[in-house]
């Protein structure tokens, strides 16, 4: 079997040799056609100076493997018949949790128990172990096998399906614990090792680089994440270090021997590794693990904002220098951010002085704090930079939130514009079909062109449009006039309420 580390080192050696040959050519050396000297120059092995970087990298891999692998354990679980059938990707279990996208379970027959395995790593000398939630979910028994072949019974400390992090505990002392690094110190292109301890193979080390950060798995596993989805963190580290079944829950390690992630999932239509692996950032995993150990549950800080990524249209409307940050769209009934002065349409560009580029990163920055702590948000309000201090609240148990029914689309349609939508006043029939209560303001979208500007920007039927470019709209004629006065290529700013009740601002560029 081809060893990925040796293959990559061989490639580095070939590259170093090719580079050295290029340097010799560029230096103007005289090459005598047909001479033995020229043949020797083109075929001799690279010098020790040229090989030294590759040898040093190889030695770094060896040192890391020797220091970290004793802390990596194999986890064997047994489940009763209730969990016997493998759940399809995206399907929820009896607790409303979605099956994580990793081909992990091995069915053992319709009546017998189900056995499965994964990996984990020791984070304390007294036996606390981090692993994936999907490794130990529904387990009746959890057994841990150390690298010295000792087998220990483990107990569940706590688990968090929203981050796919769990903590288990074995009794004992003076266990070899890993060193934890910092997610913020991880850079794209950095060498990392994925270490696991699959039950059937033993300790396994693969290498690769950090391919990307801030990856969301929602598009890979579907958006049906259940009632808890609002609190899920979508900010995974992507790596091309091979991760296969059984490696789930193992550490992702940098060249300093520090754990920077928890290997969690792969993107694969077949269930086998195809070049895309994902790890939970260690800053988030460490905070979750600490909460599980201290409280038995995760205490989630709440800033109280629904946000979206900044788009080019937003940057134009809000007069941003760069297309970065997150836009405040809506607030829950109790919102620390709104009480502190954050307003709809504000663009959050920094948290405690650290720049914010995307939603997942912003969520992780908040999630690593604790309820009651203060954070400073730098916001841009239509070109004016302001600073707001917010005392974080504590998120409620999302599982207790009632699930809202999806609205059926009304049949009426009028007032189509270049937005590619038709709108209607809130008539009794429209209100009934869209489940709109009270005396709402604005107009209701009754039809949407499939590839129109509105559809491309998230406008659906039963979306209510309250204002256009800051001006309230109460009738179809006013709406059409405000939209049609814009030239092609200009941006129209819409204040909307979505069918499930969320408010927001959509900045839409009109077609020519």
What does this protein structure show overall?
By secondary structure, this protein is an alpha+beta fold. The protein has 3 domains: 53-298, Beta Barrel (Thrombin, subunit H); 301-400, Roll (Pdz3 Domain), CATH 2.30.42; 421-509, Pdz3 Domain (Roll). It has 12 helices and 27 strands. It has helices at residues 4-26, 36-43, 48-68, 133-136, 218-221, 282-295, 312-317, 336-340, 359-367, 428-433, 453-456, 476-484; strands at 72-79, 114-122, 128-131, 141-145, 151-160, 165-170, 179-180, 191-196, 204-215, 236-239, 251-254, 258-266, 277-281, 301-302, 306-309, 326-330, 347-351, 354-355, 374-381, 384-391, 393-394, 421-424, 443-448, 464-468, 471-472, 491-497, 503-509. Strands 1-2-3-6-5-4 form a 6-stranded antiparallel beta barrel. A 6-stranded antiparallel barrel has the order 8-9-10-13-12-11. Strands 15, 16, 17, 18, 19 and 20 form a 6-stranded antiparallel β-sheet that branches. The chain starts with a helix and ends with a strand.
